Every structure is written in C-alpha cells, then in structure tokens.
C-alpha cells in the first residue's frame, strides 16, 4: 500500500470524492466536504508560501483555529442532516449552527434541544470536543514559541529557540539559527 494512502488527509480526500461521485446514495454526507479545509491546512502546498513570508510561527495557531472551524461546520452539518433537515431550509441550518455553538461553548440553551437519547449523546460529544478544541487553541496561542528540530538521540521535536541541550535526554542540539 502506498504511503500517501495511509495518511489521514488522503483518506478524508477519497471519502469526500466518493460523496461527490455518488450524491444519490451519499447526499446526507455532503456536509463532510468541509473537511477539505482541514486537509488543506495541513498540506505543504498551503504552508510553503506562508513560511517564506515569515508566517511559519503561526502554523500551530492557524491549524488549531482551522480545527475548531472545521469541527464547527462538520457538526453543524451533521446536526442539520440528522435532526433539523425536514423542510426546515436555511432557518434549520441556523438552528443547527446555534445549537452547535451553544453546545461547544457549554453556555447552555433551552430553546433548541435534540430529541431522544441520541440527541442528548450527540450534545454531550459536541460539548466535550468543543471544550477540548478551545483548550488546544488556547495552548497554541499562549504557550511559548518552540522550534521544530528533532533531537537525534530521543526524537523530541519541540525545543526552546535558544536550547543547546535537549530537555528530555540532555543530548547536544545543533538548532540552526534562522535569523542569520
């Protein structure tokens, strides 16, 4: 099996392509096409020009924000498809988006509830994932910047920009200085 076929982004792209090729059978899964945004945010094609322009340090923050936005719209599409779709049109999509945002932020609601035990379980999963994604975004924004340089001894990837030795194993690092 080729290496590219074992990557999650390739599997997502293939699944999205299948939903495009067979819309009669997979029309309800069309909302997953927004996952292409997530896949794109991880590609070198997207990041190469940004790194050249000096936006490399923002990669983790941007990817965390894209994760949050992608999750928001995938879950909104799921909620709309399986709970609000019956003749609701655009107003139903807005209700699904409202439900998703209030569940993700755990601010609570009361005016819109998903019916039955599956609806409650869906709300719980959205809340847990939303809290996790917000925490991850906060870490990416407020955690000190690290340099991506693998330690030849232990393989630790992230180091302080001025590190001389690896924090994990103490091995001497030779991190190139990009400011020179």
For the record, the CATH class of the largest domain is Mainly Alpha
Could you describe the largest sheet, including whether it forms a barrel? 2 strands, antiparallel
Question: How much of the sequence is in beta strands?
Answer: under 5%
Percent range of helical residues: 55-70%
Please state the overall shape, judged from the principal axes of the Cα atoms: globular
What's the CATH topology name of the largest domain?
A: Helix Hairpins
Q: Return the structural class.
A: mainly alpha
Gyration radius from CA atoms, angstroms: 21 Å
User: How do the helices and strands follow one another from N- to C-terminus?
Assistant: HHHHHHHEE
The whole-number mean of residue pLDDT values reads: 79
- What order do the strands of the largest sheet run in, or round the barrel if closed? 1-2
Describe the protein.
The protein is mainly alpha-helical. The protein folds into two domains: 3-143, Orthogonal Bundle (Helix Hairpins); 146-179, no CATH class. The chain is 57% helix and 2% strand. The chain contains seven helices and two strands, in the order αααααααββ. A two-stranded antiparallel ribbon has the order 1-2. The longest helix is centred in the C-terminal third of the chain and has 27 residues, at 116-142. It is globular, with a radius of gyration of 21 Å. The termini are far apart. The relative contact order is 0.08.
